[in-house]
User: Fold this.
Amino acid sequence: MSRILSPTEIACFLSHKACWHIIAEGDEAYGAVFEDDTVFTPKAGPLLADVGWIPADASIIKLETVFKKAVIAMMPSHVGFSFSVARLYGLHLGAGAYIISRKAARDLLQATGDFNIPVDHVLFDPTLATSSSETIYQILPAACAQGLFLKDKSIELASQIEQDRSPYQMKRNLLKKRRKTPLTTVKTEARRVGLQIANICRLRLEKTIPFHHHGARVRRGMMVMEYPHHPAPPNANTNLDVPSNR
Assistant:
């Protein structure tokens, strides 16, 4: 995938790279990055205040959902706080909220000196080396979602990046319709069934990642949270304030 990015997409990418720099140059093992319209479930706080649940081999953990089907491991591991974590194998776009290891942040900075691909593809498109070379997990249910995907319009923030992407998306959809023939339809269905069988054989499943949105709140501004190498003692005070990188 390669195309000319819109100014908003470039700005978004540079914001993520700035967060990766903070994490890569810091002393902490992990950091969490959130975009400005991220809406959290109330149970996300305790999850994000701890690091003991993070799998030892995790490069990136996707915290959000975009309410589209994604391929994950059939048997997720319970991590407490009413959440589970499962390996993410398929395409699951959106870069609204994720935890990233210091090493993965360094890898991405090195791999994206030049870029012409949206940041969510770099992170979560397994057809790209930047994603396929990392061990990626998905939180279940999602700990958060971007406001533009939620039905509650009172919490939605305007997304300039989606407005900028829409002309490109309309053009791609038009090209797909022009190329669609009865033969391509049959091939597409055969490929879908084949992928389903392959996923079952590899103990994977395709499902829409849920998000339980009850009393969620909006956190504004590009943010980065850094995590220590070890979880805090059970009775230690945990500071949940997240510094903003605006």
